[in-house]
Each structure stands twice: as structure tokens, then as C-alpha cells.
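Protein modeling request. Please complete all fields; requests missing the sequence field cannot be processed.
Requester role: graduate student
Desired output: 3D structure, C-alpha cell encoding
Chains: 1
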Amino acid sequence: MTTVALTPVEFVNQFYPNFWWIPAGILAAALAIKLPSIIRLWKDPLLRAVGGLLLLACAVFVFVAPSTIARVNRLTGVANFSGPWVYSLLTAFCASCLLLIITWRNGLSDRSDRTRRAMLGVVAVYSCVIVAMWVLFALADVPVERLRDLDTYYANTPYMREMIVLYLLAHTVAALVTNGLIWNWIRTDGLDSLLRWGLKFLGAGYASQLFFDAAKLTAVAARWSGRDLDWLSTAVAPPLACLSAVLIAVGFILPHAGQYLHGRLHVRLAHHELRPLYLLMRTVNGGGVPFLLRASPELRLVRRETFIRDVLLPLARFVDEDRRARFHDAAVALGHPPDRAKTLAATAAILDAIDTRTRTPEDEGAGARDTTELLREIGAVSRALRHPEDLRAIRTHPEPHPDGHSLTS
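Delivered output (409 residues):
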């Protein structure tokens, strides 16, 4: 049995009927990822705009699929009704992208005349484009249903020709302007790294749209000159549209999802960082924090911090401040930086206090102490517990004699 290798054009043509569901699925997944934040922060107009944009982009790819095109044409009873419908969705998507970038960059609080005129201009121009396309479609004679090559098949048909050129030019202008705004924004100083990367993905996505437009316009122009370059429209443009959808979805999600994931990672790392001190406090308390299966990472961190502080408070009465000072001097003598020496001294003093507590009745401990600094530095103390050799060194370091020599010398 022999297999025949397919050229890229043949591959796209073979899978064309199902090709458009790939970007639709990716955009739907992006919307699903974003949906919890949109619902939770529904009053945030920027989040709502991103959600609407992703929904509109998903609708474009759903309605451009050949099976959906045929179904819409059949339901309306108008041959090629899907043409202006898809073009209208795509034009509305272009306008939404421009509006979102303008709002996102200038900020929701920007009410300047320049920003307001720019947004009103976008709405007015693209609304007129959509109305003009439907008027041109109504005037055109397009009786033959085309599921894949409407652009090139009717490239020379009066009124339909103008409608095709109008939507492609509107799409090209929107991609150019959006691309320019994004790359100018990227070059500004002080951007968050996640936002910068998100903008880079958006820039690459809109650049892909420009290549999509170039392929479509070249195929249409070829028809005007009597040549057949339909493969540019049916085989080259679809993968570019898919790539653009993926990049734009990533670009809009990355700044928000990245911040969310960064926050969750920070909480989990903080929880893990407190584990050594938590285990040590369990030996003092004899208990621990009950495990809650449905507790959020934030709640688990708060419960662990609270447990540690609750145990440290009564333990603080057994901390010997003189020995803590000697531990600090020993840490400095061993070459540790001041901040590190301070943390090691506090940790060693806590270990000393635990030993003292086991040998001393509760009511014989020292009086109340100021534990503010100790309770604030529990993260640093817990990290120090991961280096028992350093703690052992300062706890066994010879104490200096008043004449400057060690007591063991």
C-alpha cells in the first residue's frame, strides 16, 4: 500500500471543511479561561470588552465554516447570505479591536476630546462600512452558492466586487492601525513584563492578519487580470487566520492570566517556605492546622501563618535576648551579612527558647516581650531553618572573653 504525500495546498484543501473549527475552539477555550474573572469582576468594563471581543472572534470562525455557511444560507433562503454576515462580523471585530486597544492604552479614566473623537470615529466609520456592505450585497446578483471561494468567484461581479474590496480594505486598515498602536505601546517605558509579552503576541497576531489580507487581495486582483490564484484565498489565508486567532487569544489572556498564575504561585511558594517553621512549631504545640480539602491556597497560607504566630507568642517569653545578641555576634564573626546574621540569631534564639521551655515551667518564663519584629520575619526564620549547619555553627561558636579572647582559648 503506497501513500501519496500531500502538498501544503492540497492538505489545507482536504481539511478545509473542518479547518475553521480549530481557531473557533482555541478562542472558545480562551474565553472559558477568562470567563471566571469576567463574572467575578463584572463591573470592570475592560474585562467585559475583552470577553466580548473573544466571543465576537469565536463567532467569526464559527460562521465562516462551510457547514455553518450552508446552514445559514438555507435558513435565510438567500444564496450567499453568509457572505455579508461573516464580513459584518469580521468588520465589527476589527472595530472592537481598535476600540479596545485605544481604551486599554489610554486608560478607562481618559475622557479627553482626542480619545473620544477617535473612538466615535471608529464606531462611525465601521458602522458605515457594515451598512454599505449590505446595500451592495442587496444590489448584487449572486445566485450561485459558494462555500469556500466567494471572494474570488464573484471578484468581477458588479456590486459584489465592491463589497469584497470594501471589507478587505476595512480589515487591512484596522489591522495596520491596531498594529501601529500596539508596537508604539510596546516601545514605551515602564510596562509590566506580562503586559509587554501580551502586546507582542497581539502585534504578531495582527501582523498575521495583514498577511491574510495580502493573500486575499492578491487572489482577488488576479481574477481582475484574468489569472487564477484562488489557492492564495482558499489554502494560504485560512492557516494565517488560524495563526492570528491563536496569537490574539494569547495576547489578550496573558497579561491577566499571567498575573493570576503569578499570584497563585507566590502564595504556594510562601506556604511551602513556612513549612520548616510550621513543623518546628508543631513540636512545641503538639498539634497543627487541620487539613481542609476544599480550602483555597490563600486560606491555607493564612491558617499556617496564624498557627505559627499563635505558637510563637507564648514561646517568646523564653527567648534570652542576651544569647540572641551573642548569636548575632557569632554570625557576624562567621562572615554572614548583617541581615542574614540577624535572621540566624533570631532563629537560634527560638531554638534555644524551645529547649528552655522543655526544662522550665510555664510560669517561670520571662515577662512579656515585644514580638512584633519576630512575628513579621517568620518567612526569613523558616528559610534559615533549612540551613541547620549555619545554626549549629553560631550556637556552638565560642563566646568571647571580656579581654577579647574566647573562653575556650
